[in-house]
């Protein structure tokens, strides 16, 4: 079975390597929804692993909503509606794909729906300590933009947006801070227009939050995520 590759010795646990390979085939569409995957014997041979390792990998994939196993029936690929898209490990698997732009475009849609309100809440609820942290990250972003230091920019841009989610005062926003840490770098790599930092848009968000102006923070966030600033908006 050349469809899968033998698992190599590495620091990554064997069952995680197996799960990662299968996940890539599912996420890329090579394995279709509701399609049955090969039996245990064939998969063990293809990966060069034991049944124990294979079963651990299928447990992991099941926990992410990607597959479902039934006795005497076999293992099938679950419909996309059951996939756990916000799971950090799931997001790592997405980044393994050759073409992740469609997923990042959908992530942009999620940001558009959630982030403007997060900025509005942060303007209202951010603590003095959170505002100080936001100020520090924004200053670092400014220096990075002036020096065209993309790595430093990316790190501090991530921390800037993570702090906003935490500063909402609403615990249900906090998981999105963790999601950002998983997928933010590839998002920035693909979405920036010709290396543009969008400093004016970030400045507007920063000023609005620091002044406690919720409506302006909401408007500024929408401007940052506008299609004109995001090449991913053009990806279907």
TrEMBL record:
CDD domains: WHTH_GntR
Location of the HTH gntR-type domain: 12-80
Organism: Vibrio ezurae NBRC 102218
Domain of life: Bacteria
Signal peptide: none
Family annotation (SMART domains): FCD (SM00895), HTH_GNTR (SM00345)
Keywords, sorted A to Z: DNA-binding, Transcription, Transcription regulation
Alphabetical list of PROSITE patterns matching this protein: HTH_GNTR
GO MF term (any one): DNA-binding transcription factor activity
Record protein name field: Putative GntR family transcriptional regulator
Pfam families: FCD, GntR
């Amino acid at each position: 079975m050349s469809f899968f590759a033998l698992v190599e010795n590495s620091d990554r646990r064997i069952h995680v390597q197996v799960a990662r390979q299968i996940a890539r085939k599912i996420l890329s569409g090579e394995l279709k929804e509701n399609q049955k995957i090969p039996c245990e014997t064939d998969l063990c041979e293809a990966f060069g692993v034991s049944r124990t390792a294979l079963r651990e990998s299928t447990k992991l994939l099941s926990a992410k909503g990607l597959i479902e196993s039934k006795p005497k029936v076999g293992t099938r690929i679950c419909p996309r509606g059951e996939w756990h898209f916000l799971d950090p490990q799931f997001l790592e698997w997405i980044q393994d794909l050759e073409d992740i732009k469609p997923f990042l475009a959908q992530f942009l849609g999620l940001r558009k729906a959630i982030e403007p309100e997060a900025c509005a809440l942060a303007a209202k609820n951010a603590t003095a300590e959170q505002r100080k942290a936001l100020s520090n990250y924004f200053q670092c972003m400014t220096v990075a933009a002036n020096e065209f230091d993309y790595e430093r920019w990316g790190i501090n841009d991530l921390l800037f947006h993570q702090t906003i989610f935490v500063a909402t005062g609403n615990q249900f926003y906090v998981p999105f801070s963790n999601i950002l840490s998983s997928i933010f770098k590839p998002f920035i790599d693909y979405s920036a227009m010709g290396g543009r930092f969008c400093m004016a848009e970030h400045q507007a968000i920063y000023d609005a939050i620091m002044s406690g102006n919720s409506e302006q923070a909401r408007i500024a966030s929408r401007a940052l995520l506008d299609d004109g600033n995001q090449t991913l908006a053009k990806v279907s």
